[in-house]
Amino acid sequence: MRSLAFAAALLLLAPAAPRAQDAAALYGTHCAQCHGADRFGGAGPALLPENLERLRGPQAIETIANGRPATQMGGYADRLSGDEIAALVAYITTPPATPPVWDMAAMRDTHWVSPDIDRLAAAPVHEADPLHLVVVVESGDHHVTILDGDRFEPVTRFQSRFALHGGPKFSPDGRFVTFASRDGWITRYDLYSLQVVAEIRAGLNTRNLAIADDGSVVAVANYLPRTLVLLDAATLAPRTIIDVADAAGEARSRVSAVYQAAPRGSFIAALKDVAEVWEIPIAARGAQDVRRIRTGEPLDDFFFDPAYRTLVGSSRGGSQTVVIDLDQGQEIRRLAMPGLPHLGSGIAWNWQGRTVMATPNLKDAAVSVIDTTTWELVRRIPTAGAGFFLRGHEGSPYVWTDAFLSRNRDTMQIIDTRTLEVVRTIRPEPGRTAGHVEFSHDGRHAMVSIWEMDGALLVYDAATFQLVKRIPMVKPSGKYSVINKITRSSGTSH
Ligand code: HEC
Questions:
Q1: Which CATH number fits domain 336-494: 2.140.10.20, 3.30.300.350, 3.40.50.2300, 2.10.77.10?
Q2: Cα torsion at 59, 63, 69, 74 (round to 10°)?
Q3: What are the pLDDT digits (tens) for 391-426?
Q4: Residues flanking ligand 1, CB < 6 Å
Q5: Domain residue ranges of the chain, discontinuous segments joined by +
Q6: Nearest residue (CA) to ligand 1, atom 23
C-alpha cells in the first residue's frame, strides 16, 4: 500500500521526461505532415542532423516553441510542454534508426523538366544586358533577386528552395544559372525567359555544385548520403552516383565541395573524412574513373592557381596548409599559415611582376598575401577583424574585405593591390553586419551586403568609395555577376 501511494505521489510530482518512442510519436502527430515521416522534408525543410548543424539547441527550441513568422512553421508552445519540445529537438538531431537512402530511383522520382524547355524565348524577355546581370541570394526569406547590372534595378525576384548553399553556377554562355540548396535540391533557371527549367533532388544534404567547363555536366557534392552525383546539365537528368570511399573501400567520406577545374577539363573534389583529393573526369561512370591524390590529412578548403596546376588546401581546423601539384599528384610544399586562412575566398592578382594569392583569415585580423611561385608570405595586411570574404576585379586596383567574424562586423576595408595596404575603412551602416562584395561587370561598382533581415544591397563607386545606391533586401548573402563568373575573373573565387 505504502509503496503504491509513494509511486503515485512520484508520478504526480515529477512526470517523467518523454522517452524516445514518445518523441517519435509526437513527431508523427505534429511534424511529419510537413517535414516528412522520414524527416527528408516536404512543405518544410529536412530535419536530419546534417541539415541542422547550424541550428544550435536553443535556436531549435525557440523555432519549435514560437515558429517562424510569415512561414508555415507555426509555434507549438501552447500544445507541447518544454520537455516534449526538448525531446523533439533530441529526436531530430539524432540520425534515423535506418540510415537514409537516396538512390537513383529516389532521384528520378524528384526529377522535373519544364514542358517549355525546347521552346524557350530566343532573346531575353527583359531589357537588361543578360551578361551584366547579377544574381543575388536573399537567404533571409529564401528568395533570389536578378539585378540589372547596369542600372542596379531588380529585373525579377522569385522564391528559391529552402537555404541555398554554396553559390549558384552559370552555363558557359551565361544564359542559365543553377542553384543548390542545403537539402539537396538542384534548380536550373533561365535568365532569358526568367523561369525554372529543370529541377531534381540530388541528395539529402548538399554542399555545393559545379558545372563542367563545356557546360555539359553538373557535379553535386553531398554530405548525406556520402556521394558525388553527376547530372546532365541541360535537363538535370541523373547520370552517375559515385559512392565516396577511400581506395580500400572502407571509410566513407562526406564531400566538402566540388570545383570545376576548367583548364583540366575535370572536376576536383575536397573530401571531409578521407585524406584524398579527387579529380573526376566529366564522363566518369563511377569511383573506378576517379584519380585519387593522397594527402596527409583530409583537406576541406581549397584555392586553385588561375591555371589549375596547383591547389592550396587546408585541413580541418587549419592545422595544416599544403600545396599540391595537380599534375604530379602530390604535395610539394607545406605553408605556415597560423590564422586559419579562408582559402575558398582566396583571389589572385599580379604584384610586382608575380602572381600573388590573398586570403582573409577566419581567426586572425589580417589578409595574408602569398607569392604563388616561391610560396613565401609576402605580406600580412592587418585588418579590423577576422574576415570571411575578399573580392577584386581586373578593372579596379582595389580589393574589398570584411571583418565578418569579429566585433567589427559592420566594417569593410579596401586594400590597394599595388601597395598591399588598407587605404580606406568604411562602416556602411554602423552596428549592422556588412559582408560579401561583388564587382559589377566593368569593375566600376562594388556591391556590399548588409547581412540583416531588413538588410540591403549597397552599391559603391569602386574608385571613390562613395555610396551610389541602396536596394533593400532580406539578408542578402552571396551575389554573383554573370560575366565575372563565366570569364573566371581573377578577382572572384569560383
Ligand atoms: C504546416 C507545416 C509545418 C509543420 C506542421 C511543422 N513545420 Fe517545422 N517548418 C515548416 C517550414 C515551412 C519551415 C521553414 C521556415 C522558414 O522558412 O524558416 C519549418 C522549419 C522548421 C525548423 C527549422 C529548420 C531549419 O533548418 O532552420 C525546425 C527545427 C522545425 N521546423 C521543426 C518542426 C517540428 C519539431 C515540428 C512538429 C512539432 C514542425 N516543425 C512542424 C513547416 C512546418
A1: 2.140.10.20
A2: 180
A3: 999 999 999 999 999 999 999 999 999 999 999 999
A4: 30-31, 33-35, 43-45, 47, 52, 55, 60, 63-64, 68, 71-73, 76, 88, 92, 142
A5: 2-92, 336-494
A6: 63
Question: Cell 526568367 belongs to which residue?
Answer: 194
Calculate how far, in angstroms, residue 6's C-alpha sits from the geometric centre of ligand 1: 41
Residue type, 311: L
Residue nearest (by alpha carbon) to ligand 1 atom 39: 31
Determine the pLDDT at residue 271. Answer: 97
pLDDT in tens, 294-343: 999 999 899 998 889 999 999 877 778 999 999 999 999 999 888 889 99
Q: pTM for the complete prediction?
A: 0.94
Burial 110-149 (b: 16+ CB within 10 A, else e): bbebbeeeeeeeeebebebebbbbbbbbbbbebbbbbbbb
Q: What end-to-end distance do the CA atoms of the chain give, in Å?
A: 74
Mutate to test the pocket of ligand 1, among 34, 61, 78 (most ligand atoms within 8 A of CB): 34
Three-state DSSP class for 9?
Answer: helix
